[in-house]
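Exercise: predict the fold of this chain.
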Amino acid sequence: MPELTEDARKQLQEAFLEIAFRANRLREWVDLDKELRVLELSFGDFTREVSAVVVAIGGGGAPVNTGRMGDLWSRISETDFVDLQSFSDSLKYINRASRAEQSNGAGNPSDATALTKVSLEALFDLTRQIQKAIDEAAYKKLQQRCLSFQQGLKKEISMYKQSVRQELLNLCEMTSQVRMQL
């Protein structure tokens, strides 16, 4: 095997650094997806319980038991949202452009991963509205807020899935390029 020149060695080192950065960013995307899926499942249970309460109230008659709904909300708000916020606060790669993206002008439309930023603030705003509806015992409004939250969550999950696909594609292309250079 021929000896590498200093320039070739530097190019290879840059390529490996770029691949490592993108692999770490991909790992964060996958971990974020897991966090969002846990929330999606928990919130689905909560939404079904809210719907049951709305139906029971609409039927009149016997008093409505909101205990299970309260328990589910407590678990979501005290565990799932806290975990998601902590994870979001600890992101190191997703909201940063890699060195190659920076030198190519981060935000280049041909590189979708450079454009996608994690911002869960809209979801957290909805959780405050949900809490307010719970506090006011405004169950119809709560049901509407739950629907809005689920739609927002599905939109986030879909957008992040696209980012994972693009990141995988970019990693595969980069590793092929490095392999060809070797």
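Check your answer against the key: Residues 5 and 53 are 72 Å apart (CA to CA).
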